[in-house]
Automatic annotation (TrEMBL):
Source organism, top-level taxon: Bacteria
InterPro entries in alphabetical order: P-loop_NTPase
Compositionally biased region (Basic and acidic residues): 53-67, 150-164
Species annotation: Pseudomyxococcus hansupus
Lineage: Bacteria, Pseudomonadati, Myxococcota, Myxococcia, Myxococcales
Gene3D superfamilies: P-loop containing nucleotide triphosphate hydrolases
Region Disordered: start-end pairs: 1-169
SUPFAM superfamilies found in the cross-reference section: P-loop containing nucleoside triphosphate hydrolases
Name of the protein in question: Putative ATPase with chaperone activity, associated with Flp pilus assembly
Length: 595
């Protein structure tokens, strides 16, 4: 008798093409013959992987809370915002157009275009329907709109009536994720390897993919004997509550998977979808007014010329250059500026470029926004809802940090600072004090500032174009004439000097800081400080001095066991410890002017 032919096991069959992907993924090799299961294979362990017053006194000026209009050119995945327009219609009717305040309805599969005033375009009975662009939120592929990834719904930004925004829809099928089955299977295997054993729902939470989608992937791995059920989770019924572990047959396969990369986290999104999201959530084209700005800076005490300087710069969305003496709030002003850009944005945990994973979300830089009640699960959890970021880099900045950072140990990339600041603000603080020369650093920024495109390089040598949608700010307390040239000044159109506060502002800042620190404000004590320790030695004011001196007063009062108050004795003690200058020609230190 001829024995029956044994089927050759495969992990997932031929890899399905990744929607919008840029490379192919090698399918996992077949398992060894046999059907026994065992414990988790032993493999090598994974390698280790401005405090300044920023609030402004309440202003009585009215606040314009209208959302900024959408950019003139929208990505293909979003329906263009239309004011006062109702989009309805039975059946699969689709609508577009330019009429303000008009409702366009039509039964059945009628299609409409808005080039003709008050006219419908319907296909005659028995004739094929209009085969133009799909108006449900995506546009048919063309030279001007190459993106072909999963469809994304357009939603409304909370608190901004009538404003359209990028909203990543929850994927319902594997093809809508833009990933291949093989790639998701590798993520499941790595999650089980690093955790030892996991419930199905925990694997789905690790990958940030729908439970039903992950259950299908796990079931395929079970049929190939790479994953086995250890037992129930003890709560509920169904696949998602089952506890899974790896078998001994996955050892060779898993070694190859870990050799490719050791990324163990949420599933990435496609690079094309990321580019489309950045364009839709652009920081350009704002309409920021003076009234709106005054409500965003809190208790920060700044002069009117500051508002008049930064407002137009933010509307341009390009770049601004701050210069002036240290300690006068350049960094704090930038923190207030980022609050003026309306709305929150979606940032992906990671993106996929040519089968290489690039991590973007950074918990240290991105502030997560809590979902509204009932919003959980209403969008793709591979994206994180965040405030527009403010990324600050200082003297530690090098040219290498402005490119994709590849780790040969874990074999995936970390996005550079400017990529993490997309749709937000990037502040290059202490400009001129970096290890790299100012000229080289400026040459690195000239092209992105001019073209809104940044060129990054993979470790394979491939060049990659990514959107540079960042409001860049340069800040320095050095002489600008020693740092910048005409080419840089031409591309950074807005230059603003942050001056020292005058005496009245010095009092105002002291009052704000006393309220924040819980110390009674005494104008006479501040006058004593100025008359005794500022005027006699021509000491200049600085916006940071009230905060620093008050903190020293509080420390000294606690040391003496008394209530912190602005008294001459405590102020004298604070001045002696704060204002010092070390004379190079003498061994003693004498009190002198700061700055």
């Amino acid at each position: 008798m001829v024995p029956p032919a044994q089927p050759t096991p495969v992990l997932s069959g031929p890899p399905r093409p990744r929607a919008g992907g840029t490379g192919a993924t090698t399918a996992l090799p077949p398992r060894p013959p046999g059907a026994n299961t065992g414990s988790r294979p032993a493999l090598p362990p994974e390698p280790d992987e401005p405090d300044f017053p920023t609030e402004r006194r309440a202003a009585n000026a009215p606040v314009d809370r209208r959302a900024p209009p959408a950019p003139a050119t929208l990505p293909s995945v979003i329906i263009a915002p239309q004011e006062s327009r109702e989009r309805r219609g039975p059946g699969p009717s689709q609508f577009t157009g330019a009429e303000e305040g008009r409702e366009r309805r039509g039964p059945g599969p009628s299609q409409f275009t808005g080039a003709e005033e008050g006219r419908e375009r319907r296909a005659a009975p028995g004739q094929p329907q209009y085969n133009g662009p799909d108006r449900r939120g995506t546009i048919a592929p063309s030279a001007s709109a190459p993106y072909v990834g999963p469809e994304r719904r357009a939603g409304r930004r909370a608190g901004e009536e009538g404003a359209e925004r990028f909203w990543p829809a929850q994927p319902r099928t594997l093809s809508e994720t833009g990933l291949t089955a093989t790639f998701v299977e590798e993520l499941v295997l790595k999650a089980l390897f690093f955790a030892g054993e996991m419930r199905g729902m925990d694997i789905a939470a690790r990958l940030q993919l729908p439970t039903s989608l992950v259950d299908d992937i796990i079931e395929g791995l079970r049929r190939q004997k790479y994953v086995d059920i250890r037992g129930g989770g003890g709560s509920g019924v169904g696949k998602s509550t089952m506890i899974y572990q790896l078998t001994t047959f996955v050892t060779d396969v898993l070694r190859q998977v870990l050799d490719r990369n050791r990324y163990n986290g949420p599933a990435p999104v496609s690079f094309q979808e990321y580019v489309a999201a950045v364009k839709q959530q652009t920081v350009r084209g704002n309409r920021i007014t003076r009234a709106r700005m005054q409500d965003k800076f809190g208790d920060l005490i700044i002069k009117d010329y500051i508002f008049d300087g930064i407002g137009p710069a933010m509307n341009s969305g390009r770049a601004i250059f701050f210069y002036g003496p240290p300690g006068n709030g350049k960094t704090a002003i930038c923190q207030g500026m980022v609050n003026c850009f309306g709305g929150d944005i979606f940032i992906p945990h990671a993106i996929l470029i040519d089968d290489f994973v690039v991590r973007i979300f950074d918990a240290n830089l991105h502030k997560v926004v809590e979902d509204e009640p009932g919003a959980a699960g209403s969008y793709d959890r591979r994206w994180v809802r965040c405030r527009r970021p403010l990324v600050v880099v200082g003297g530690e900045l090098t040219l290498e940090m402005l490119d994709l950072v590849y780790s040969p140990e874990v074999k995936y990339y970390e996005a550079p600072f400017q990529m993490k600041a997309s749709n937000g603000m990037l502040l290059i603080d202490d400009f001129g004090r970096q290890k790299v020369s100012p000229k080289d650093l400026l040459n690195r920024w000239i092209v992105p500032l001019e073209s809104d495109i940044d060129m990054l390089t993979l470790h394979t040598g491939k060049k990659l174009q990514v959107p540079f949608d960042v409001f860049a700010a340069f800040s320095t307390n050095l002489d600008p004439s020693d740092l910048v040239d005409d080419a840089f000044l031409r591309r950074v159109r807005y230059k603003l000097e942050v001056q020292r506060p005058d005496e009245d502002q010095f009092h105002d800042i002291f009052q704000v800081m006393c309220r924040k620190r819980g110390v009674p404000y005494d104008a006479a004590a501040v006058d004593y400080l100025i008359d005794t320790h500022y005027r006699p030695v021509d000491r200049p004011f600085a916006a940071c001095q009230p905060r620093d001196l008050l903190d020293q007063v509080i420390d000294m009062a606690h040391y003496q066991g008394i209530e912190p108050r602005l008294t001459p004795e405590l102020l004298d003690s604070a001045v002696r410890g704060y204002f010092v200058r070390f004379d190079k020609d003498k061994s003693s230190a004498t009190s002198a002017s700061a700055g």
